[in-house]
Structure formats: structure tokens, C-alpha cells
Write a structure and sequence with these properties.
single chain; 5-stranded mixed beta sheet; 18 strands; about 15% strand; elongated; binds zinc ion; metal-binding; tRNA-guanine(15) transglycosylase
């Protein structure tokens, strides 16, 4: 068990947890956002991040501090917390990003970790190799070996109470991400950033991002705090949290503001294109788009950065509340509608339903069927798995009809799309209390038919009849041949 991280609530792969940061004497509630601070130029001061936005943790780059003489001296003399004037926890990056951008840096893992410790960082980072997407497998494996060596070096550096990141690389090879996760988990390091995913997000490859995270998560233990490194757009937080990410860092709030870009959970807008501000943060209540456009550059950038942060932190709170209420996947479904690439991300997430099912609570409020993707949610999969274990009499009527009348059969079970059949005694238990639209879709019917098939296949000795409300022929094709079919829709005629 990792002492620094405790899980309190889960929903799908998402979790609310407490990350204890001993050196800062702070406990950070996750999912958490770490605003990125450039020590040489801050758009919004760290003090304001803490007091106005409630930031409990931020991230800054120790390599920039290391390479800037006067800042380095002040950091060594006064410590990072005084230098930045921030009361919460501070994570530092190592220069790996600069390594990936410029090809080389002039510092080793020992040197940069010792420097991070010396300036008072609370969570330090070794110099890993951020392997970009789509490289050859040979390159990905070779660089992963180097990253693993660096993690082993990091284990031996005396870092006192400072927590240390163990980045998980492996490019776009899910099995390498899984191996990297397993190897990182086996070290005594503390926090696990999934690295080099920024190019995927810049290209809107949310499905590939999901596969990469899913691979890393398979290797990491359930108690490992996972950081999606470089992910700062609120549009994709719900998706990433549902996959099991706990920490995000945002440079986007400031970088986007510099180009007059306005963040929303449905995507990014340019200030020039806005006639209304679709947000109720203090910035948007006090200004019209014309007011903002009329501001001098520096002030406009600061106001936009403040809005971007408000929108970002609000989404983190919304996600936490969704986990607590047990409707995180309904939130992901909403976000998936913002952009076709997000929908790809959600569909990829559902490819990993079996992985999510392991942490998904057995009981929640109410399952809302809100899109045909809902038919692939972990709860449906779990119900189908449960069908293998239910005791079935010699003859059984499965019916969508309201009546429990199973005359001529030993028993009668209900059938509800998307779950399929279940004994009436389970009617009041999650997820079978689901709210499903009356105008049901083919995916829900197909999933119900698959449930029927699973039950029938698990009980070859029993006799089954299925009374359905006009299921189309291609759905009925999924039901095994031996099942007697009764169309309830015919009765209404
Ligand atoms: Zn706003």
C-alpha cells in the first residue's frame, strides 16, 4: 500500500483520493489540477492561485530555475515556496520536456533531483525520456529502458521527505505502457505521470490517449496516483478521470489566454468570435466580450487566464461531484458530444469496460441510458457476467411484458434493454432500476439480446422462451436458435 495516496470514492475508473505530500505538510484532494507556473513570468500569481482559485498544488520547472542564475540563487537561498509565494504543495518537473524539444539538456537525474530537493520541492521528477507517439517499437523500447534506468537511479538519491515522480513512457504501444507501469510501480517512487501524451491531445487523438492510459493503468497498482502529464484542457478531464487519472497540469490556461483563446468544457473559442460569454465566473459576469477586447494586452491576457482557470477548476469540482454521485460516465457522455474526437475517446474508453468494471461500484444512484454508447458501459458488462452465475429452472420465460404470468414455465424473468434478462427479485437493485428512454435504440436491444444469449449458453439443459416487444430481425438473430420467440407487439394489433 502506498502511504501517500488513499482512495475515498470510485466511479468507473475515476476516483476521489487524498494525496499526502509530507514535505509540504499538505493533503491534496484528487482529482486535482496543478496550474503550471513559469518562474520567469507568471500570468496569475501563485498566491492568487491559492487564495482565489483554491489551488492546493502547482507545478513549476526546476530545469528553468536551475538554468537561470539569479532565480537559481534565490531558490537555493529562500526556497521555492518563498520564491513563488505559494502556501500549498509544489511539484517540479526536471527538464524532460526541454530534452524532448531541443534534443539535449546539461543535467543528470542525480543532479536535478538533488537540486529539486535543495530548493524545497515537494514532489520531484527524474529526467525521463518522453518518447513521442508513433515512433518505431525499437526506439520506444530503447528509450523505455533508459527511463527505467533513471527511475532506478532516482530511487537511490537521498530525497528525504520529497515525493518523487516515476514517469510511465512507451509511446503509442499499450503493452509497453503496461510494462512501464509495472516497472514504475515496482520502484519505491511515489507518483506516476503518464508522459508524452501532449502530441496526442494536440492532434485530438483522444482514443489513442485512452489506450495509452489504459495500458499504463494495467501495469500500475490500484493505489498508484496517476498524473496525465501536460493535459490541461478541461474538455477532456472527465474522460481522463474516468480512465483513472488523478492529477492534471495546466499551462493551457495561460498559453491560451496569450492568444485570446477562451476555454470551455465544450472546446476552445477565440475571443474575436464571441458575442456572449457562456460562463458565470467573476470575469464573465463583470465583462462583455467587447469590454475584454478593449482591454490593453496584458490586462486582457490576465482576465482571460483567470476565466480559463475558473472554467478549469469548475470542471474538476463537477467531476468530483459526479464521482460522488455515481454519474461520472453520464458526464463523460455529455463531454463526448462536444467534438467527434471526444466521442472517439469515449468509445475507446468503453473498449476498456472490463478494466473499468473492477473499480466501478456495485451500487449507485440510478443508471441513465443517455446514448447508444450506454449499452457498452461497465454495468451492462457486469450484468452479463452475472448471468453466468444465476440459478435457472428447467423452463424459463424471459419477458419484456409487465405481467409476471409465466404459466406453462417454471418461472418468468424480466427482460430490460440494455441489460437483458434478470430474476424479478433483482428488479429493485442497481443497475436494473435504470432510466431508459421509451424510444429505445438498436444498441440497447442488441445488448439485451446478447444477455439472453449469454444466459441460454450458460444453461444448455434449460428451455427458454423470449417475449419481446417487436425486436427487429437482426437483433433477434443474436438470440440462440432453440429459444421460442413471442412478439408482444403482435398482441396490441
Ligand atoms: Zn468565465
Amino acid at each position: 500500500m502506498r502511504e501517500c495516496f488513499e482512495l475515498r470514492e470510485t466511479d468507473a475508473g475515476g476516483r476521489i483520493g487524498d494525496l499526502t505530500v509530507p514535505r509540504a505538510d499538505v493533503t491534496v484532494e484528487t482529482p486535482a489540477l496543478l496550474p503550471v507556473i513559469n518562474p520567469n513570468l507568471d500570468t496569475i500569481s501563485p498566491r492568487r492561485l491559492a487564495e482565489e482559485f483554491g489551488a492546493e498544488i502547482l507545478i513549476t520547472n526546476s530545469y528553468i530555475i536551475y538554468g537561470t542564475d539569479d532565480v537559481r540563487e534565490r531558490a537555493l537561498e529562500d526556497g521555492l515556496h518563498d520564491l513563488l509565494d505559494f502556501p500549498g504543495a509544489i511539484m517540479t518537473d526536471s527538464g524532460s520536456f526541454q530534452l524532448s524539444e531541443y534534443g539535449e539538456i546539461d543535467v543528470t537525474t542525480e543532479e536535478i533531483l538533488e537540486f529539486q530537493h535543495a530548493i524545497g520541492s515537494d514532489i520531484g521528477t527524474p529526467v525521463d525520456i518522453p518518447t513521442p507517439p508513433d515512433v518505431s517499437r525499437e526506439q520506444a523500447e530503447r528509450e523505455l529502458d533508459t527511463t527505467q534506468e533513471r527511475l532506478e537511479i532516482a530511487e537511490d538519491v537521498d530525497t528525504g521527505e520529497m515525493l518523487v515522480n516515476a514517469p510511465v513512457q512507451g509511446s503509442t504501444y499499450p503493452d509497453l505502457r503496461e510494462r512501464a507501469g509495472r516497472e514504475a510501480d515496482a520502484t519505491d517512487l511515489d507518483v506516476f505521470p503518464v508522459g508524452a501524451v501532449v502530441p496526442l491531445m494536440n492532434d485530438y487523438r483522444y482514443d489513442d490517449m485512452v489506450d495509452v492510459v489504459a495500458g499504463a493503468k494495467r501495469g500500475l497498482g490500484a493505489d498508484a496516483p496517476v498524473h496525465l502529464f501536460g493535459a490541461g484542457h478541461p474538455m477532456m478531464f472527465a474522460l481522463a478521470v474516468a480512465m483513472g487519472c488523478d492529477l492534471f497540469d495546466s499551462a493551457a490556461y495561460a498559453l491560451y489566454a496569450r492568444d485570446d483563446r477562451y476555454l470551455t468544457v465544450r472546446g476552445t473559442r477565440h475571443l474575436d468570435d464571441l458575442e456572449y460569454l457562456p460562463c458565470s465566473c467573476p470575469v464573465c459576469l463583470e465583462h462583455s466580450p467587447d469590454d475584454l477586447r478593449a482591454l490593453p494586452d496584458r490586462e486582457r491576457e490576465e482576465e482571460l487566464a483567470a476565466h480559463n482557470l475558473h472554467a478549469t477548476f469548475a470542471e474538476i469540482r463537477r467531476i468530483k461531484e459526479a464521482i460522488r454521485a455515481g454519474n461520472l460516465l453520464e458526464l463523460v457522455e455529455q463531454r463526448a458530444r462536444a467534438h467527434p474526437a471526444m466521442l472517439d475517446g469515449y468509445r475507446a474508453l468503453l473498449d476498456h469496460a472490463a478494466q473499468l468494471e473492477r473499480t466501478d461500484p456495485v451500487s449507485k444512484g440510478s443508471f441513465f441510458y443517455t446514448s447508444h454508447e450506454s449499452a457498452r458501459r461497465p454495468e451492462v458488462l457486469r450484468h452479463h457476467q452475472r448471468l453466468d452465475r444465476l440459478a435457472v429452472p428447467d423452463s424459463l420465460l424471459l419477458t419484456e411484458g409487465r405481467s409476471a404470468d409465466g404459466s406453462g414455465f417454471d418461472d418468468s424473468w424480466r427482460v430490460e434493454p440494455p441489460f437483458g434478462p434478470f430474476p424479478r427479485a433483482l428488479s429493485k437493485s442497481y443497475p436494473l432500476t435504470a432510466e431508459v428512454p421509451d424510444r429505445t435504440d438498436r444498441s440497447a436491444l442488441a445488448a439485451a439480446a446478447d444477455g439472453v444469449a449469454r444466459l441460454v449458453d450458460a444453461n444448455p439443459e434449460s428451455e427458454f422462451a423470449l417475449a419481446h416487444r417487436g425486436w427487429p430481425a437482426d437483433v433477434l438473430d443474436r438470440v440462440p436458435d432453440g429459444v421460442a420467440l413471442i412478439d408482444l407487439a403482435d398482441d396490441r394489433a
